[in-house]
Request: fold
Amino acid sequence: MPDAMPDAMPDATPDTSTVAVLGAGALGAAMATRLGESGHEVRLWNRTRARARTAAEHATGVTAVESAADAVSGASVVLTVLRDGDAVSAVMSDAVTRLDDGAVWVQASTVGPRSATALAELARAHGADYLDAPVSGSTVPARQGRLVWLVAGREDVLTRARPVLDDLGSSVLHVGTEAEGSAVKLAVNAWMAASTVAMSDVLALCDALGIDHATFVRVLQAGPLAMPYELQKIDAMDQGSYAPGFAVQLALKDLDLAATATAPSPLLRAVRDRLDATMAAGHDRDDLAAVDYLRKRPPTGRPGA
Reply:
């Protein structure tokens, strides 16, 4: 089959109209909805079946299926959007045997390079084409088709998955051929968590100095220090609105994955402690902006208004 590939390439690019999305959490459901609206036939699976059914019920072109095997059979692109490497491995150990010839497995979960390498080996062992392709961005960018893909894998495989990736993302960055996508994702998420904690602490400094937050934002926007993501977080923090986007518990999981690569710096240890305290305060499923909850808590320890 590999010897015939060059001659067959023009006809070998599979029809990407059928996509399987394994994982109906916030990001997986948003991806499935966006793909359905973009004209793909989407099969959505989740271990908790009710979650997949709820997501599919209000989405065009999305069908909830009972098993991962049903989802991937006949699909030309399979997206795994699950919590961690163990979850992906548990699901795909069987599902990978059901992939059609020419199907592309796009591994979009944040699993870290070690698990990404093991999953690539699982794919190779079954002759499946695999991309290590986590994303930068959460539910709102997914619904808007503005995710940033961090892709490692063969270029010909990426070309075949490209129509699906383009419908979900504004950028597709090819960063390597092995597990570099997962490595870059951990660095990006460490920066995101650290900058969010830093923003909360700087807002506390503004309060101590009597600086109105709107004035602080105006100064940032006038120069090169404005960071759109964190400017959005100021709004969420001031309103005490922590609607799920990127959950605190997932940020903590990613920092722990990063810690397996190197000893955490004093900064990242402090960020981890802040996330841990936010989790302990009951905000584990809330957006990362909830790290600001601790700034607003009165000295008695009782929650603020």
Notes: Residues 180-209 form the longest helix (30 residues). Residues 1-16, 300-305 have pLDDT under 50 and may be disordered. The radius of gyration is 21 Å. Residues 184-296 form a domain with the N-(1-d-carboxylethyl)-l-norvaline Dehydrogenase; domain 2 fold (CATH 1.10.1040.10).
